[in-house]
Amino acid sequence: MPIGTMTPITLDEIRAAAERVRGIAMRTPVLPLSWPGHGEVHPFWIKCENLQPMGAFKIRGAFNMLAQLSREVRARGVITYSSGNHGRGVAMAAQALGVPAVVVMPQTAPAVKVEGVRACGAEVIFVGRTSLERQHRAEEEAAARGLSIIPPFDHPMIIAGQGTVALELMEQVPDLGTVYVPMGGGGLISGVAAAIKQMQPAVRVVGVEPVTAAKIRAALDAGRPVTLDCSSSVADGLINLRAGDLTFAHIQRFVDDVVAVPEEAIIDAVGWLYRQSGMVVEPSGAATTAAVAVGLGAPIGTVAAVVSGGNVQPEQFAAYIAGSSTDERAALT
Fold it and tell me: Exposed, middle or buried by CB within 10 Å (0-12, 13-18, 19+), for 298?
């Protein structure tokens, strides 16, 4: 189906998802922070999805999809492919619903994310380093074992579940002018942007990805999803090689701007968030704060940044804080 003809997620679908995930995904708080610029202090809000029970927003989309599967499909089991947080979200949702689950993860997956998946009772299969390698293995396992695939981002039920973040944010920050959202495969920003633009079209939506994993920017330049030759970043949840077809259609339709942040800015944002709020935020979750801090995205009005997750190895977290560059740290404090 041509991208331009894909039907966007409706506000009613997102609201239905919010009812479905109530009691499983928590209503995360927003916190007021501030960053300096041009000699003034500018307030902004962070939406703390790192405080979800599994440490990331992914439980929203995962539970929304699993909850809608038939009893027969659930009995056979589900499988997904993930760098970590989506896998943990599927594992947690499956555990809550009594569904057998398998998660295909990269050989480089952080131990904290692997342990989180296993703690929920899911089977873990390791393969390769890229999202495409994981997807191919999951498809093979699904065919051989009769499992249903729960995709990490490119599915209407996943997108609708992630869009519930925006319903909360719009209530919590009623004068919202600009929201920054991290982008891996695009599920979160698709849901958030679809909700916001169907509620308040004037709110500016800015997508954020690493400079070293700019698959959405490449897709927008080409007018279609393209596959990067390589992708790497400290933000391991944002290094997909390719956007989804459905998520790209949502980004084209609803997102105002897409920006790319350098690695040092992401690392410094991890440390800055800890010093300002005491919170542990993984690099993928700190990318939006990094974009705000270095002045990307031409924000208007009251600004919010979605902090998408907090699952990071303790020793890596300590290294990110200790390793923050002097210049970047000065710009953020």
Answer: exposed
How many of the other CB atoms lie within 10 Å of CB of 107?
Answer: 9
Active site residues: 58, 308
* CA distances for 95 relative to 27, 59, 62, 66, angstroms: 20, 12, 12, 11
C-alpha distances out from residue 70 to 66, 80, 308, Å: 9, 17, 29
Categorise residue 150: left if φ over 0, alpha if ψ from -120 to 50, beta otherwise. Answer: beta
Residue whose structure tokens are 């804080």: 321
Tell the burial category of 89 from Cβ atoms under 10 Å away from its Cβ (0-12, 13-18, 19+).
Answer: buried
pLDDT at 218 over 90: yes
Condensed to tens digits (0 to 9), the pLDDT of residues 266-292 reads: 999 999 999 999 999 999 999 999 999
Residues 6+ apart with CB under 8 A from 245: 1, 3, 6, 154, 225
Q: How far is CA 174 from the centre of its chain?
A: 22
- Please check whether the domain covering 3-56+157-332 is classified as CATH 3.40.50.1100: yes
- For the 59-155 domain, the top CATH level (class) is alpha beta
Strands (E) located in 99-141: 101-105, 123-126
Strands (E), the chain: 30-37, 40-48, 78-81, 101-105, 123-126, 148-149, 176-182, 204-210, 257-261, 302-307
Domain regions of the chain by residue span = 3-56+157-332, 59-155
Residue 325 has pLDDT above 70, yes or no: no
Q: Among 243, 250, 209, which Cα is nearest to 228's?
A: 243
Residue 188 backbone zone (phi > 0: left; psi -120 to 50: alpha; other: beta)? alpha
Residue 6 pLDDT grade (very low, low, confident, very high; cuts 50, 70, 90): confident
- What's the CA gap between 60 and 187, in Å, rounded? 11
**Cα separation of 210 and 238, whole Å?**
7
Whether the per-residue pLDDT at 37 is higher than 90: the answer is no
pLDDT at residue 130, as a whole number: 82
The tokens for 39 are 């000699």
Quote the pLDDT of residue 323: 63
Q: How many CB atoms lie within 10 A of CB 71?
A: 6
